[in-house]
Amino acid sequence: MATSEKKLKVAIMGAKGYPYVYGGYDTMIKELGERLVAKGVHIRVYNHRALFPEKPRWVNGIECIYTPAIESKSLTQLTHTFFSMIHACFSDVDVIFVVNSGNGPFGLLARLFGKPTAINVDGLEWLRPKWKGLGAKYFYWASKLATKFYDQIINDSDEMRRVYLELFNKDSVVIAYGANPKESVSPEPLSRWLLDSRDYYLIVGRLVPDNNADLIIEGFLKSDSNRKLVVVGDVPYQDAWANRLKEIQDPRLLFTGYVTDPMELAALYSHCYAYFHGHEYGGTNPAMLKALGYGCAILALNTPFNQEMLQNGKHGWYFEKNENSVKELVEMAEKNPGELENLRKTARYGLTQKYNWDYVTEQYLEVFKHLSKK
After folding, report:
1. Strand locations in 172-324, DSSP E?
2. What Cα–Cα distance (Å) separates residue 167 from each residue in 11, 104, 108, 127, 305?
3. What residues does the DUF1972 domain cover (predicted)?
4. Same domain, 150 and 86
5. Is residue 206 located within the same domain as residue 310?
6. If 0-12 CB within 10 Å is exposed, 13-18 middle and 19+ buried, where does residue 308 land?
7. Domains in the chain, number
8. CA nearest 48: which of 69, 27, 24, 30?
């Protein structure tokens, strides 16, 4: 009698866990993990113990391990991955998949234990203003070590692949982040903020300097638009920079804070006049993919990453990193409603196959199978 083929066993770590969905990495683990389980792969996700009051061992076919961390702003994430990596190295997993280049040094542990590894390194963390001095140096060093200690580097955009080749002389596999397009969303949840469809511009993202909400707000307020600017997002700690923005008094400005209800967020995206994307560093951005998937007219900061995602202007307009450029773009958008409507109609065509979660999953599976045979 033939023996059944052994299940491929993959450990995933470096994010908050499953089914916790707060950021891009958590979403990726959910979308990827559930699809891989459906394909017969044993998926184990290492969850951040402090975030899970209830700790079931299995959720939707995914094995959940709850590891501790040293709870502090700078150490939580790194220590959680460190403890998770030790647990995985002593287990029978075939492949260890890590997210976040800050976890670069821990690839050495897996190498010592002979465990095949892949890491999704994400964006240019060392350039982000929040990591000044020592933090920036650490992220650069950790990203460099990731290229030496992990068997497979994964980037989510061609531009980021180019950066890693140039800086660290290391090639990577490019696997984009996926999107879930939605065709029709009710405007009803907008009533919570007394908003009407197409009567506001939208920003979605953490209130941190590298997302450039300050630049967008100041440029917008200089414009002659009568619409509102709705800012969705915050930071989970007291921050002078974010507080300064939230203290700006103008009837056209609305800060909603975090919006965790998916239907409310979907309505805000779907019914905005235009979506502002000021993210400066990083590859495939989840908020931009949502904007394309919800059919938004997109006004994006002119960066190589945003050019790649919007196919060099095919699916959005660009502004430069100054207030006047934002002001001029808003006034151009006000004068050309027909062109913005055309951007909305064609936005979903920007979600080419590479942003399809099923396709993304197939690519990851190929990497994991290849590594397990090493």
Report:
1. 173-174, 200-204, 228-232, 253-257, 274-277, 298-301, 317-319
2. 29, 15, 21, 13, 17
3. 117-179
4. yes
5. yes
6. middle
7. 2
8. 69
Helix (H) or strand (E) holding 333: helix 323-335
pLDDT at 5: 67
The confidence score (pLDDT) of residue 281 equals: 75
Say if residues 92 and 83 touch (Cβ distance below 8 Å): no
Per-residue model confidence (pLDDT) at position 125: 64
CATH code for the domain in which residue 83 is found = 3.40.50.2000
Strand 200-204: give its sheet, edge to edge.
253-257, 228-232, 200-204, 274-277, 298-301, 317-319
Ranges in the chain, pLDDT < 50: 1-3
For 140, the domain range is: 9-178+356-372
What is the pLDDT at residue 159? 87
- Does residue 330 form part of some domain? yes
d(CA 132, CA 372): 38
Q: What is the pLDDT of residue 292?
A: 94
Pull the structure tokens for residue 30.
């959910």
> Residue 210 forms beta bridges with which residues?
none
Same domain (yes/no): 305, 199: yes
374 vs 196: CA distance, rounded Å: 56
366 part of a folded domain: yes
Q: Tell me, what's the pLDDT at 1? A: 40
pLDDT on residue 131:
60
Q: Tell me, what's the pLDDT at 280?
A: 84
Co-location of 224 and 345 in the same domain? yes
What's the whole-number average pLDDT of the chain?
91
pLDDT for res 137: 86
Q: Are strands 173-174 and 274-277 parallel, antiparallel or unpaired?
A: unpaired
For the four alpha carbons of 49, 28, 170 and 369, in that order, the dihedral sign comes to: positive
